[in-house]
Amino acid sequence: MYDGIINIYKEKGYTSHDVVAKLRGILRMKKIGHTGTLDPDAQGVLPVCVGKGTKLVDMITDKDKTYVAVGKLGVTTDTQDISGKVLFTADCKVTCPQLQEAISAFQGEYLQLPPMFSAIKVDGKKLYELARQGIEIERERRPVLIKKISLIAFDEEAQEFTVEVDCGKGTYIRTLLHDIGLKLGCGCTMKQLERTAVGQFKVDQSLRLSELEALVREEGLAPFILTIDQVFEGLMKLATKEEFDKLVHNGNAFLPEQAQVITYGNEKQQEKQLNKLQNKEFSQDQVRVYDSQERFIGIYGYHKERACYMPIKMFL
To answer: According to the model, what pLDDT value does residue 21 have?
Structure first.
């Protein structure tokens, strides 16, 4: 039985659900969930939560993501990627400065229209189910955040370009490329997509299913599973004093004086946090909470009005 997060590299041809199904067979456990859909033609980082780690799914889904995408100018498809039906083509001769200007216009927040070929639900039906029936319905634009978008390469003759995108939750990269094509007046479709990071999960640390299966056979998978508390490594660690362990074991709140700071950051950071506890200078910041035996309990937040730490997410 495993508990935590495995950084999987999803290969082309698999759906995210396919990955989960295969992992259930390899790990011989049912409690597994992925943290964000990648289209079958896309590849890259797919953090998968196992065991108690499945409680983290919604928290990891909210993490920022990084993608590398290839766009083809002069082509527009119904799915906004190269697998779709071509709606129209255009003879375009976009220059590098023009492309750079169009790309730069999307850095920051903008209102994105979700594609019909997406898993978004409207009245209980997924949009792609309607799209496959030839039905297109009205959708509301949603704010998405493009933290950074960089032009990596541009083949002016082929009118193909590669961008790296750092973005927030809910961003459709194929729609971003489609919108860049609209801005240039020639259309654009996505040829290739790789997700290279989801929060702290990076592509160079990911495992393909074949690699994971080999590790399981050799009983060497454990070092590749990120423990639940490691996901929150940036948060201060508090441990309850032994006589107050029962409070957190039962998922109750506790007072600052009923806990102590355990290893956290460098000496300067630890000293700062200790001073905060001693001088009762608390904030709404979240903390990792452990019992006196340093068993991870969950994430708590300080409640100013009640002057105590209250549970946000328990992992007992």
So the answer is: 95
- Give the per-residue pLDDT at 276: 59
Which of these is catalytic: 3, 18, 39, 58?
39
User: pTM for the whole thing?
Assistant: 0.86
121-132: per-residue pLDDT in tens?
777 777 777 777
| CATH class of the domain comprising 4-63+200-228 | alpha beta
CB atoms within 10 A of CB 125: 13
39 annotated active-site: yes
> What does the alpha-carbon distance between residue 312 and residue 310 come to, in Å, rounded to a whole number?
7
Decide if 4-63+200-228 and 65-196 have a common fold: yes
In CATH terms, the fold of domain 65-196 is: Pseudouridine synthase (3.30.2350)
Question: Residue 275 and residue 224: Cα distance in Å, rounded?
Answer: 36
Per-residue model confidence (pLDDT) at position 39: 86
Q: In this structure, are residues 52 and 3 in contact, taking their beta carbons and an 8 Å threshold?
A: yes
- Taking the C-alpha atoms of residue 141 and residue 129, their distance in angstroms, rounded to an integer, is 20
How far apart (Å, rounded) are the C-alpha atoms in residues 309 and 215? Answer: 40
Instruction: State how far the Cα of 186 lies from the Cα of 76, in Å rounded to an integer.
Output: 8
User: Which CATH code of 3.55.50.30, 2.30.130.10, 3.90.550.10, 2.40.40.20 fits the domain covering 234-314?
Assistant: 2.30.130.10
